[in-house]
């Protein structure tokens, strides 16, 4: 079977929230981008399939926005993907989900629907929109009744880090199929995630203990250890070991940027990663994705440039989060601000 390649496709910036940490609206000069026309969407889709054919990959789409369901051709796009039997996940809001909508999503091939919870009720509603916390929890079951997997994603920052363990309990109690978190990426509004490295390691330890307790109790929620610093934590605790068969120079894990992921914006701009604000590499209406991947994306695969990670034995499996590092000073290869590992000179 061909390996999957992930396209995170922002089909519109239209959204009925204005989240405090949203990268669409946070940048000083940022303005929402008009949604693609149907003809443009067809062109992008064909470009993506051409890419996969050239590079021997199977396409997987993460359809998002804004809130993608607000695009006038949202359903038409899903029908196009269904006709090609291409799987996809929706990253969206809870406000327009009904049993009928979710059943239609399932019929068209939607595997997962991802919602966000960024703290307990007061904190989440401050981040996103009053009432959003309760309706998000409510819609977990709406999604599940249709046979779609309900995913809860949390953006961790100094504002909500103390609430994450209790939030895990809430997510489990409400029956989410998957829970994961990643860190807030600094923007022009602020240049710091607000978390000291040792505090972040403590969060991972607290969550790891809770994850293992739930697993032992037969909990059906899957805990996706999305942040790459989990690799460092598990290396220290013995849950991860460097394989004896590992080959020097090979990259086995860590950041997908430059590896198996591209982001497409509503105006056709191609980003190595949407969370890396300065990672635009081309435009899908002007460039062939297959060529962009081989040429312009090469600079995101220069692993020896990582200022700290290149000296670490875990380089091939971790690399931290370059988006968080880049958000602080614009340097993709800078040290991850929350990485607590000390690298001795000469390593």
* Overall body shape: globular
Look at the structure and name the CATH superfamily: Aldolase class I
Helix/strand order, N-terminal first: EHHEHEHEHHEHEHEHEEEHH
Residues in helix, %:
25-40%
Which regions contain 5 or more consecutive residues with pLDDT less than 50? none
Strand content: 15-25%
Q: What is CATH's topology name?
A: TIM Barrel
Instruction: Give the biggest beta sheet.
Output: 10 strands, mixed
Backbone structural class: alpha/beta
Could you give the order of strands across the largest sheet? 7-6-5-4-3-2-1-8-9-10
Query: So, CATH architecture?
Result: Alpha-Beta Barrel
Number of helices, where a helix is a run of at least 4 consecutive DSSP H or I residues: 11
Domain Radical SAM core: 1-220
Keywords: 4Fe-4S, Iron, Iron-sulfur, Metal-binding, S-adenosyl-L-methionine
InterPro entries: 4Fe4S-binding_SPASM_dom, Aldolase_TIM, Elp3/MiaA/NifB-like_rSAM, PqqE-like, Radical_SAM_PqqE_MftC-like, rSAM, rSAM_ACGX, rSAM_sf
Organism: Acutalibacter muris
What does it look like?
This is Radical SAM/SPASM domain protein, ACGX system. GO terms for molecular function: 4 iron, 4 sulfur cluster binding; catalytic activity; metal ion binding. It comes from Acutalibacter muris. Pfam families: Radical_SAM, SPASM. InterPro entries: 4Fe4S-binding_SPASM_dom, Aldolase_TIM, Elp3/MiaA/NifB-like_rSAM, PqqE-like, Radical_SAM_PqqE_MftC-like, rSAM, rSAM_ACGX, rSAM_sf. With 347 residues, this protein is α/β, with parallel strands linked by helices. It has one domain: TIM Barrel, CATH 3.20.20. It is 33% helix and 15% strand. It is built from eleven helices and ten strands. The protein has helices at residues 23-26, 38-55, 74-83, 99-107, 121-127, 132-145, 164-173, 197-216, 229-237, 289-294, 322-329; strands at 4-10, 58-64, 88-91, 110-116, 149-156, 178-183, 222-224, 261-264, 269-271, 280-283. Strands 7-6-5-4-3-2-1-8-9-10 form a ten-stranded mixed beta sheet. A hairpin with an 8-residue loop joins strand 9 (269-271) and strand 10. The mean pLDDT is 92.
